[in-house]
Automatic annotation (TrEMBL):
This is Cytochrome c domain-containing protein. InterPro entries: Cyt_c-like_dom (IPR009056), Multihaem_cyt_sf (IPR036280). It comes from Sulfitobacter faviae. The keyword Metal-binding applies. Keywords: Heme, Iron, Metal-binding, Signal. Residues 22-186 form the Cytochrome c domain. PROSITE patterns: CYTC. Residues 1-18 form the signal peptide. It comes from the Bacteria. The keyword Heme applies.
Length: 193
């Protein structure tokens, strides 16, 4: 089923590229918009490295603020080593309407894999990371598009409710930009062009 939904998604965008594939400049412009999303605190605060310590940067809790309660998701990425994410974050499809309340999401709360750490990384570092299946949790562009469209976390990130900040743009725009970036050959600014 996942394969079929990915194929269907690619067929929907294929007519846009049927005449001519996007060039490097268009791919780099799409990447710049993608990085604007990946660099937003709504994303980077959970896309952290091996320390497994989520952040509250740029979300009204003060600069460089570490997630409260000394949470460390550790190697498990779910907080099994300290306080599980779901001790406060709620796994449910309920709407997020109460400011500063634990957020709801219709999936098991966890941090992304260590390979997808974005916090503190430059555009060139994240670009190289996301185009390489060895460092992006095994995704090619088609499965990355599928992940964006179907991940409860990504969807929540664009609509977290209760007045929470969101990345610039929309999820549909991000999917489009990832598709353009992929069709252009996943260029990064530091590549030899």
């Amino acid at each position: 089923m996942r394969y079929l939904s990915t194929c269907a998604a690619l067929m929907l965008v294929a007519p846009a590229f049927a005449q001519e594939a996007p060039d490097r400049a268009e791919g780099l412009a799409a990447w710049d918009r993608i990085f604007t999303v990946t660099a937003h605190p709504r994303c980077t605060n959970c896309h952290v490295g091996e320390e497994g310590q989520p952040m509250w940067q740029g979300l009204g809790y003060g600069p460089e603020a570490v997630h409260g309660m000394n949470v460390r998701a550790g190697e498990s990425r779910i907080g099994a080593e300290s306080i599980p994410c779901d001790a406060c974050h709620v796994t449910s499809a309920a709407a997020n309407t109460v400011p500063h309340a634990p957020p709801h999401i219709d999936d098991a709360w966890r941090l992304p894999p260590v390979e997808l750490a974005w916090l503190g990384k430059s555009s060139a570092e994240v670009c190289a990371q996301l185009r390489d299946p060895e460092t992006n949790d095994g995704h090619d562009i088609a499965s990355l598009v599928d992940h964006l469209q179907n991940s409860a976390f990504v969807n929540w990130g664009f609509a977290p409710g209760a007045g929470r900040s969101v990345p610039e743009g929309t999820l549909d725009a991000l999917v489009h930009d990832v598709t353009v970036w992929g069709a252009a050959g996943t260029p990064c600014a530091g590549d030899q062009g």
